[in-house]
Amino acid sequence: MLPSPSSASPPPRGGFSLALLTRNLFGRLSRWWHLCLVLIVILWLSGSAFTPRRYRIQFFKSSRPAGGPRPPPVRLPAEGDLWAGRAHDVRKAFMHAYKGYQAHALPSDELRPMTGEQINNFHGWGVTMYDSLDTMWLMGLEDMFYDTVQDVAKATFSMAPGEHAHFFEVVIRYLGGLLSAYALSEDPRLLKLADDLGEKLLPAFDTPSGFPVYGVNTATGETIHGARDGEMVCLAEVFSNQMEFKYLAHITGKSKYYKATERPMRAVYGTENTMHDGLLATMWDVNTGKPNQTHFSASGRADSAYEYFLKQWLMTGQKVSKARDLYIRSANAILEHLLYVGPHRELLYVTDLKDGAPTHHFEHLACFLPGLLALGVHTPALGLTAGERERHTWAAHGLANLCAVVYSDTVTGLSPDNFVVDRWAEVERGLWASRVDVWERAGRVGPPPGTADLPREAATEARGYSPVTDAYLLRPEAVETFYIMWRTTGDVKWRERGWAVFVSLETYSRVKYGYTSIRYLDERRPYRFDDMPSWFLAETLKYLFLLFTDEELVPLDKWVFNTEAHPLPVFEWSQEEIQEFDIDVA
Ligand code: DMJ
């Protein structure tokens, strides 16, 4: 039999063959439509399980509880919108860092961003996740936020016998991170975790003085003193938990959280344990609750204690006047006794006193202080006198200028972690408070001492200070201060200074999987450490992002940042809480 004409024609090519294929495909699919439908429904329902993280889209999310707030929407910057573009650059930097951690280190604590290795330096519970949650929220990264909530939701904070959680670090990073993420999202899983962790940390306060010890085993409640300092605990460790435990008491209704964290406060509301009517020693005896009066500082080992005196007052609705008074007294004492002006360039810096003498060391950590002072000045209800307001404002500006110029001086544009400032032959000549007195008596000619903007000094020998630790550890304190200065003064120079820091980070710290600390800041090719502390994601990138974002996403009168940059909401104690917790609102 002859083939029919149609079957005898040459095989179809090109568009014709595609049309035929499509027709065949649809023909087949129409026969299997019911199976296709079932497959689509299964994929839809189980999207989170089957869809790889990086491809996941909003539709497939199941982890967000119904209702509750949503993060701010991500609006891609319009052409020519300079600051929105810069904020978006920071968001991209955060995503680079977190995705590197997620792909190579999660669920370990931190990522080694050059090699992609991981490290457990905070008990192996995944500290970078906890420290990053609220940054994701504020940056509008909702999928990433809920992925991470799912990752942390299984946490048990377990610990082998003989191990101890570092109370201070766990409070400010893990507990602070959970509480802030809860406050922003109202996801009940985060509250449950925070309460669980709070319970496990409470035994740290079981000391004769009520001062928390250095370490606690989260499984057994067994405690341990810090290795080097006998039964001493440092000031920052005693007084950097009041925000977290007071907010936790408020949202759980558990008075024990409030009582534990408030007890040490009652030891310092008076002046009997202070020097110069407001300075608090760096080390304290856990048994007696008494200070070891040999060292006074506003940076390492002390810094966030002063920060929490003001911030717990702000967070709890500005009602507990004893905390406010304590802040004002201690800030005045710092300005009076720890601030010096160097003999070159009029550098204003805050240093520490050892056995009564200034060391002239300045730590990057101390760059939180100008922001704190500015925040106080910005709060009318703080009730500073006119004279105090002036001095706090001048000190804030002068110290913030120093924190900017120690970045811009170096080749890399990044600041040393610790340096020593040149000193006068007669030490007293440098004391800032005396110089301000002299300037006032002379009729206030020119700017107050140590407050002028400082031009860059490229020559290391002319800078007026020498690095002790010539390394930038991705620390946040300077950009934290730039952010507060920008919000409280509206002067765009603070934004520009923050942008310069970000450009340097991109140039020198950005590596394959994230960002790294660097050493030798005056070399064009600095040494790279291969570490990325979680505070970089919690604080440094968050403050930079907020600095460049026009909208005030975290209004300073409604939220208060803990010392790890986790914002907690301002609230008022109810009458029931005041009675049940025994809160002194006088
Ligand atoms: C952070 O963990 C906190 O800001 C803490 O109070 C001090 N230092 C680091 C970052 O430098």
Automatic annotation (TrEMBL):
The transmembrane segments are 32-51
**Which sites bind Ca(2+)?**
T563
Q: Name one GO molecular function term.
A: mannosyl-oligosaccharide 1,2-alpha-mannosidase activity
Which reaction(s) does its UniProt entry say it catalyses?
A: N(4)-(alpha-D-Man-(1->2)-alpha-D-Man-(1->2)-alpha-D-Man-(1->3)-[alpha-D-Man-(1->3)-[alpha-D-Man-(1->2)-alpha-D-Man-(1->6)]-alpha-D-Man-(1->6)]-beta-D-Man-(1->4)-beta-D-GlcNAc-(1->4)-beta-D-GlcNAc)-L-asparaginyl-[protein] (N-glucan mannose isomer 8A1,2,3B1,3) + 3 H2O = N(4)-(alpha-D-Man-(1->3)-[alpha-D-Man-(1->3)-[alpha-D-Man-(1->6)]-alpha-D-Man-(1->6)]-beta-D-Man-(1->4)-beta-D-GlcNAc-(1->4)-beta-D-GlcNAc)-L-asparaginyl-[protein] (N-glucan mannose isomer 5A1,2) + 3 beta-D-mannose; N(4)-(alpha-D-Man-(1->2)-alpha-D-Man-(1->2)-alpha-D-Man-(1->3)-[alpha-D-Man-(1->2)-alpha-D-Man-(1->3)-[alpha-D-Man-(1->2)-alpha-D-Man-(1->6)]-alpha-D-Man-(1->6)]-beta-D-Man-(1->4)-beta-D-GlcNAc-(1->4)-beta-D-GlcNAc)-L-asparaginyl-[protein] (N-glucan mannose isomer 9A1,2,3B1,2,3) + 4 H2O = N(4)-(alpha-D-Man-(1->3)-[alpha-D-Man-(1->3)-[alpha-D-Man-(1->6)]-alpha-D-Man-(1->6)]-beta-D-Man-(1->4)-beta-D-GlcNAc-(1->4)-beta-D-GlcNAc)-L-asparaginyl-[protein] (N-glucan mannose isomer 5A1,2) + 4 beta-D-mannose
Which Cys-Cys disulphide bridges does the record give? C367-C403
**Cell wall biogenesis/degradation listed as a keyword:** no
What are the record keywords, sorted?
Calcium, Disulfide bond, Glycosidase, Hydrolase, Membrane, Metal-binding, Transmembrane, Transmembrane helix
Give the EC number(s) listed in the UniProt record: 3.2.1.-
- Please give the pathway this protein is involved in: Protein modification; protein glycosylation
What cellular component terms from Gene Ontology apply here? endoplasmic reticulum; membrane
| Cofactor requirement | Ca(2+)
Q: Does the keyword Metal-binding apply?
A: yes
At the top level, the lineage of the source is: Eukaryota
Sorted alphabetically, which Pfam families does this protein's record hold? Glyco_hydro_47
Q: Which family does it belong to?
A: Belongs to the glycosyl hydrolase 47 family.
Name of protein = alpha-1,2-Mannosidase
Q: What is the lineage of its organism?
A: Eukaryota, Fungi, Dikarya, Basidiomycota, Agaricomycotina
